[in-house]
Amino acid sequence: MNRDDFLILLSANQWSNAACIGYAIKTCKALDYSDKEINTFINTINAMFSNFTLEEAEEEYRRH
């Protein structure tokens, strides 16, 4: 999935927190994160979902 595909999913309301976390977990595994590191990451990203809007997250993504 490229950046444009990602933005299309966001605008089409086909994205979910669970899908996002699933991609993130796959990424963590590809980077050989330990189970403890993955769990810490999951807890942190769930906090981000609670503390920031979709628009704020999108803005952060576009900055990088």
Quickly list its features.
4 helices; single chain; 64 residues; mainly alpha
Describe, in plain words, how this protein is organized in 3D:
It is a single chain. Helix 2 (about 15-30) packs antiparallel against helix 3 (about 35-50). The chain has one domain (about 5-64). It has helices at about 5-10, 15-30, 35-50, 55-64. Helices cover about 80% and strands about 0% of the residues.
Question: What is the fold's blueprint, element by element?
Answer:
Layout: H1 3-11, H2 17-30, H3 35-51, H4 54-63
Helix pairs in contact: 2-3
Helix content: over 70%
**SS-derived structural category:** mainly alpha
On the 0 to 100 scale, the average pLDDT is 86
| Total of domains | 1
The count of β-strands is: 0
Distance between the ends = 16 Å
Task: Give a quick account of the main beta sheet: strands, pairing sense, barrel closure.
Answer: none
Number of helices, counting only DSSP H or I runs of 4 residues or more: 4
Query: Taking Cα atoms only, what radius of gyration do you get, to the nearest Å?
Result: 12 Å
Quote the beta fraction.
Answer: under 5%
- Low confidence ranges: none
State the shape. Answer: globular
N to C succession of SSEs: HHHH
